[in-house]
């Protein structure tokens, strides 16, 4: 007899496929792999096509497909390539979810949070990219909305959105969670709103000089050298540094370098020198995999103290 004409008992089919009799009977009862015929004694018999169909079912099950999907394949309602592509897409989502869970667990192990904090970490980490962006846009709207603040700075904030990688490191998850908590902090929101109001007031008085990167670089270089030399901000040695910097500010803002300018500059620096604002950018850099900029807090703290002492 040709192999194509051979009929197999359910036991023989089990031996050839490695599946249990119970599993084959289940597939047969549900119509996924029906029997081909019955023996005179009433036992189920299966032909070579049933064997091939059973091999396909086993392979698809090993790949994690559900029985409803497998039924569509064996009944030719869906092709194997179509099902494979859809299932691969679903696995991509599952893999990303598992990677995220792993990163959250490692961040939890590092932080040692309370159960409530751990629940918050899990919820925040599961937000989609769009939800994360919306979260930060809401923060920007709440702090800069309705004000004619520095447009270049606001645009820079809107263009720098949190992007959690597909396979984040624990410190990136930790950075996103801290960033989300920071942007919801009422005190921080109030401080940023004050900065925005100060920017808007200066623009109303004619300040359209932008982000002042050149001034920041000048302060960093000159105060950095003073810090490296161990010059105290209230000492006589700080005076030439302060004089050079106030002269530069006067030049940029077309003002006279006098006591009024120094009072104005002190207020300006005190409003802007909130360590949480710098922390915002450091967290965003960690989260997005950007180089974390060096802290300027010591530099501007020195400059503020030097101005106060005079």
Report a brief summary of the structure.
With 310 residues, the protein is an all-alpha fold. It has helices at 10-17, 21-29, 48-62, 67-74, 80-111, 115-125, 129-144, 151-159, 170-183, 186-204, 213-228, 239-252, 259-272, 275-288, 297-308; strands spanning 8-9, 37-38, 44-46.
**Large-scale geometry:** rod-shaped
Q: Helix tally? A: 15
Strand order of the largest sheet: 1-3-2
Which structural class do you get from the secondary structure elements?
A: mainly alpha
Name the quaternary structure. Answer: single chain
Give the number of domains.
3
- Average pLDDT figure: 89
| Annotation, overall tally of beta strands | 3
Rg to the nearest angstrom? 34 Å
In percent, how much strand structure appears in the residues? under 5%
Helix coverage percent:
55-70%
The main sheet comes to: 3 strands, antiparallel
Order of helices and strands: EHHEEHHHHHHHHHHHHH
Distance between the termini: 109 Å
Low-confidence stretches: none
Question: Secondary-structure map with pairings?
Answer:
Layout: E1 8-9, H1 10-17, H2 21-29, E2 37-38, E3 44-46, H3 48-62, H4 67-74, H5 80-111, H6 115-125, H7 129-144, H8 151-159, H9 170-183, H10 186-204, H11 213-228, H12 239-252, H13 259-272, H14 275-288, H15 297-308
Antiparallel strand pairs: 1-3, 2-3
Helix pairs in contact: 5-6, 5-9, 6-9, 7-10, 9-14, 11-12, 11-15, 13-15
Key traits:
single chain; 310 residues; mainly alpha; 68% helix; rod-shaped
Protein architecture, described:
Strand 2 (37-38) and strand 3 form a beta hairpin. This protein has three domains: 3-78, Orthogonal Bundle (Multidrug-efflux Transporter Regulator, Chain: A, Domain 2); 84-209, no CATH class; 212-308, no CATH class. The protein has a three-stranded antiparallel β-sheet. Helices cover 68% and strands 2% of the residues. It contains 15 helices and three strands. The N and C termini lie far apart (109 Å). The protein has helices at residues 10-17, 21-29, 48-62, 67-74, 80-111, 115-125, 129-144, 151-159, 170-183, 186-204, 213-228, 239-252, 259-272, 275-288, 297-308; strands at residues 8-9, 37-38, 44-46. With 310 residues, it is mainly alpha-helical. The longest helix is centred in the N-terminal third of the chain and has 32 residues, at 80-111.
């Amino acid at each position: 007899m040709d192999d194509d004409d051979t009929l197999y008992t359910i036991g023989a089919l089990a031996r050839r496929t490695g599946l249990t009799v119970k599993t084959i009977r289940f597939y047969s009862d549900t119509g996924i792999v029906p029997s081909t015929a019955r023996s005179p004694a009433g036992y189920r018999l299966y032909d070579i096509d049933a064997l091939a169909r059973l091999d396909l079912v086993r392979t698809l099950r090993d790949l994690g497909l559900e029985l409803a999907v497998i039924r569509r394949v064996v009944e030719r309602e869906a092709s194997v390539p179509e099902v494979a592509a859809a299932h691969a897409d679903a696995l991509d989502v599952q893999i990303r979810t598992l990677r995220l869970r792993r990163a959250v667990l490692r961040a939890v192990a590092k932080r040692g949070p309370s159960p409530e904090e751990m629940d918050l970490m899990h919820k925040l980490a599961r937000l989609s990219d769009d939800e994360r962006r919306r979260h930060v846009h809401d923060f920007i709207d709440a702090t800069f909305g309705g004000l004619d603040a520095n447009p270049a700075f606001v645009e820079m904030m809107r263009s720098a959105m949190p992007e959690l990688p597909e396979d984040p490191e624990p410190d990136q998850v930790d950075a996103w969670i801290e960033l989300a908590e920071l942007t919801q902090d009422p005190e921080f929101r109030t401080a940023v709103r004050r900065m925005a109001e100060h920017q808007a007031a200066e623009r109303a008085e004619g300040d359209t000089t932008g982000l002042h990167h050149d001034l920041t670089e000048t302060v960093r270089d000159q105060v950095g050298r003073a810090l490296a030399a161990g010059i105290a901000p209230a000492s006589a040695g700080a005076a030439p540094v302060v004089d050079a910097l106030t002269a530069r500010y006067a030049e940029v803002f077309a003002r006279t370098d006098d006591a009024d300018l120094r009072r104005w500059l002190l207020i300006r620096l005190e409003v802007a020198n909130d360590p949480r604002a710098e922390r915002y950018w450091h967290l965003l850099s960690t989260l997005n995999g950007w180089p974390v900029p060096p802290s300027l807090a010591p530099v501007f703290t020195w400059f503020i103290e030097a101005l106060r002492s005079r």
